[in-house]
């Protein structure tokens, strides 16, 4: 009885590092923005992050069509 919340809780483990989250959304937020902090290419329009510059460029073309020519691709490491 006392521990029912633990057993009832649905866990969404990060598919990369296994860190557990209570919601899929929280897990995806972690996965996209902070998991292992290895994503180094950032979209400065929506903060999407990618491992490869060509993935970010594809994202910009697909998600920010009208702004694609103005986007500056930045590379860095998240703390
Ligand atoms: Zn993770
Ligand atoms: Zn974006």
UniProtKB/TrEMBL annotation:
Residues 12-39, 41-69 form the C2H2-type domain. GO terms for molecular function: zinc ion binding. InterPro entries: Znf_C2H2_sf (IPR036236), Znf_C2H2_type (IPR013087). Keywords: Metal-binding, Zinc, Zinc-finger. This is C2H2-type domain-containing protein. The lineage of its organism: Eukaryota, Metazoa, Ecdysozoa, Arthropoda, Hexapoda.
